[in-house]
């Protein structure tokens, strides 16, 4: 039960960080984001690499999807342009997963500290926005660290291991379960971490 609570706390931290990241991006880019999206959307290659770069910096498919929907609804880019940006973003999110695999989440408190210092002591709105983005990234990695530690510290339940062995033969069901879990958690990053 305690492990489940730790995992739930880690997921809550991820969700909070995702929302805070979105606010930080709004603070950092503000009205300039629309112009930047329009300029990048003119070339499919630039759109792809823009999505790749943004997703590498903001490891949240939820945030990227919300930005995409907002940009299309506001008429800043077409649906086709945003699909190319989202394809790049999906690949960029895998970079974050690689960073988690490299245990960068162990350094999350240092990332949080750097973001907090920028947020508190920077004089310009842009630098405070950058601090908020860095702080949010640190919180995302910290949430992943909490989840990873909770899962690795728990003794594997024999029933759970049997269930996993049975599920191995049903990849379609596992895919569906992962999709449902990502929708419930509102974070594919959290689902991948689990």
Task: Chart the SSEs and their pairings.
Blueprint: H1 2-29, H2 32-40, H3 44-57, H4 61-73, H5 79-101, H6 108-121, H7 125-153, H8 158-167, H9 171-185, H10 188-193
Can you offer a commentary on this structure?
With 194 residues, the protein is mostly helical. The chain has ten helices and no strands. It has helices spanning 2-29, 32-40, 44-57, 61-73, 79-101, 108-121, 125-153, 158-167, 171-185, 188-193. The protein is globular, with a radius of gyration of 18 Å. The chain starts with a helix and ends with a helix.
Low-pLDDT regions: none
> Based on DSSP secondary structure assignment, what is the total number of beta strands?
0
Termini separation: 16 Å
Helix content: over 70%
Average pLDDT, rounded to a whole number, is 77
Give the SSE order as H and E letters.
HHHHHHHHHH
Radius of gyration from CA coordinates = 18 Å
Task: Provide a concise account of the structure shown.
With about 190 residues, the chain is mostly helical. Helix content is about 85%, strand content about 0%. Helix 1 runs antiparallel to helix 7 (about 125-155) and helix 6 (about 110-120) runs antiparallel to helix 7 (about 125-155).
Task: For this entry, give a set of tags.
0% strand, 194 residues, globular
């Amino acid at each position: 039960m305690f492990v489940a609570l730790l995992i739930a706390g880690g997921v809550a931290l991820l969700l909070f960080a995702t929302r805070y990241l979105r606010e930080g991006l709004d603070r950092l880019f503000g009205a300039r984001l629309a112009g930047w999206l329009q300029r990048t959307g003119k070339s499919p290659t630039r759109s792809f690499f823009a999505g790749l770069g943004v997703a590498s910096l903001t490891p949240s498919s939820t945030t990227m999807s919300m930005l995409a929907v907002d940009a299309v609804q506001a008429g800043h880019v077409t649906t086709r342009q945003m699909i190319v940006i989202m394809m790049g973003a999906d690949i960029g999110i895998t970079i974050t997963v690689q960073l988690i695999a490299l245990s960068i989440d162990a350094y999350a408190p240092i990332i949080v500290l750097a973001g907090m210092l920028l947020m508190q002591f920077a004089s310009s709105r842009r630098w405070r926005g950058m601090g908020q983005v860095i702080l949010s990234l640190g919180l995302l990695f910290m949430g992943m660290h909490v989840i990873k530690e909770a899962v690795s510290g728990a003794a594997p339940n024999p029933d759970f291991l049997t269930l996993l062995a049975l599920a191995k033969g049903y990849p379609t069901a596992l895919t569906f379960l992962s999709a449902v879990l990502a929708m419930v958690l509102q974070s594919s990053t959290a689902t991948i971490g689990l």
